[in-house]
User: Fold this.
Amino acid sequence: MVHNDKFMFPYEGAWSDGREKLLCLDTGSWRVNRPVLDKEKCNYCSLCALYCPPQCLKDMGDHYAPDLDYCKGCGICARECPRGAISMMPEGEFADDSAKR
Assistant:
């Protein structure tokens, strides 16, 4: 969308540099599945972070960890991981977590 020859929004395309969250909406308690990372399989390629729609994967220096406050549980990170380092697990398996994640 263009207004006076300037972009109206800070992000006008599908590409993000990954340093800012594009969709900062707290997930709440409705997520059904969550990503679980196997650090042994991860080669730190960053494809998971690149394809994550809400950009909620945090760079931890040697792997990417999902910010579960913003993760929607879509599973795109797991599908895009070339090494199968991310798997989607049902939230019910984490029912004992004290946090809403």
Remarks:
- The mean pLDDT is 79.
- The first strand starts at residue 2 and ends at 3.
- The chain is about 10% helix and 20% strand.
- Residues 47-51 form the longest helix (5 residues).
